[in-house]
Amino acid sequence: MTSLTVGRLARKFGLSRSTLLYYDAIGLLSSAGHVQGEYRLYGLAEEERLEQICRYRRAGIPLQEIKKILEAPETGLRDVLERRLTELNREVRELLDQQRVIAGLLQNPQLVQQSGAMTRELWTDLLAHSGFSEEDMHRWHCSFERKDPDKHRLFLQHLHISADEIESIRQWALSPWKT
Q: Which of 45, 66, 103, 109 would you call most buried, defined as having the most Cβ atoms within 10 angstroms of its Cβ?
């Protein structure tokens, strides 16, 4: 079995030595043992645990939540991940709103399009170039609104559409098509 010192394990994962010592102090990652001179040694099991810790950290999960997951993965993992995904969705919406406000303050809504974000204009152009008529788009919105109104609203928010316009589109989707 290969053992790594705290410094070598930290370098292997691109972390600082002090990070691993902190993980040890809070009970998140303990060494497999010590050798002369009080060197902490980490084995394969600790390496695998650290890999999991790093994966959860990349997902933005707080250390205390990671500790709970690792101690009882069958009970808490799904709830923690779903909660984090909900937080991320909220943060993305807030960032999109900030992006829209900044573009408005600069009096240049095209800046949102230049950011690479999908906008209403880009979406409708894409549908039109795919052969969608106005009636096809109406049917698409109708179907989306009836099937999952919350996801339809979220989708429209991701297109940088204002709250008033979103409400108008949702009402339009519920109305019969008029030629």
A: 66
